[in-house]
């Protein structure tokens, strides 16, 4: 029989995708499920973006492109950093890939391997640890607490550094917590990083999705010299409701972007030509659809904060960015709900799905047992009825 490579033992399937699949399976049997697992905006991709894709097809822009992406898109991404953060980026430093997840994979493949450690503050986005393992490097998970705002302090970082530390991965605004590093906190972390030889992958995919006047900062721009050791990740998936188009990017020091481009040229050639032209329109075209989506997310966030406050025996800190609420449900551990003995976040999610038909993601998938993640990238009606069901289950 065909034997899998050793590597197959290092990587687990995406837990968020597994929960979404479980919810979908239940839905397919005709049961109504309130699906709060989704990590993608439920809005359609803006029309101007779709039209740009149609134009690209009509104009025959349907062939291979340069491996690292079409020149106008790389230029537009470079301009994004110079105009938003005063960070001078040469288009050669930008590599466009099949989604930000692919950009992170390429960056990790370029920068780490067996013997290296990668520091990841928890709660972290599910894929980080698995993508690090895939390179043969070792993820070193550093827990942060709700009391610390789920932020990595400079001292915690210093304590985590060993001679094998190669990289630190940060994500602000964060999936799953919605935490954002204020400028001063991020500068203090940057100073601690600059005391070491550690490089940084800064995942800024939720950079435009912030609330209550909070602002996300481009990490690489905060101190001189930081850009030489930082790979900045972002993309169009979340901001422009374009998850299916698969366009993300990395902005990296030239030697790193050169290798990432070479790697991609062997791995996947280039991201879809049509999607790249669409992404160019998203970034350079009118932004009114984005403002509308953000307005809707803002309303939902307020609603979710209000509803979570009404849930029995839970606690949480309102998210400042992204579209998730990360809720502590530990007080319900030890209960039996609808025949399910709730002992951890996974069994809590099983109980919620079977008793309340509410699909959530367990905190353990993010390295934070005791919590569950609710996505509010879903309509008000679903949110309302889902919270009713969840509320009744927790009272019961
Ligand atoms: N980074 C974070 C923190 C995310 O939450 C996601 C998507 O869920 C991604 C990266 C991946 O984005 P993309 O769809 O562009 O691959």
From TrEMBL:
CDD domains with a match to the protein in the record: AAT_like
Instruction: Provide the Aminotransferase class I/classII large domain boundaries.
Output: 32-379
Pfam families in the cross-refs: Aminotran_1_2
| Native organism | Tautonia plasticadhaerens
Q: Which GO terms of the molecular function aspect are on file? A: pyridoxal phosphate binding; transaminase activity
E.C. code: 2.6.1.-
GO annotation terms (biological process): amino acid metabolic process
* Family, similarity comment: Belongs to the class-I pyridoxal-phosphate-dependent aminotransferase family.
Protein's name in the database: Aminotransferase
Cofactor(s) annotated in UniProt? pyridoxal 5'-phosphate
SUPFAM superfamilies xrefs: PLP-dependent transferases
Against InterPro entries, the record matches this protein to:
Aminotransferase_I/II_large (IPR004839), AspAT/PAT-like (IPR050596), NHTrfase_class1_PyrdxlP-BS (IPR004838), PyrdxlP-dep_Trfase (IPR015424), PyrdxlP-dep_Trfase_major (IPR015421), PyrdxlP-dep_Trfase_small (IPR015422)
Report keywords, A-Z.
Aminotransferase, Pyridoxal phosphate, Transferase
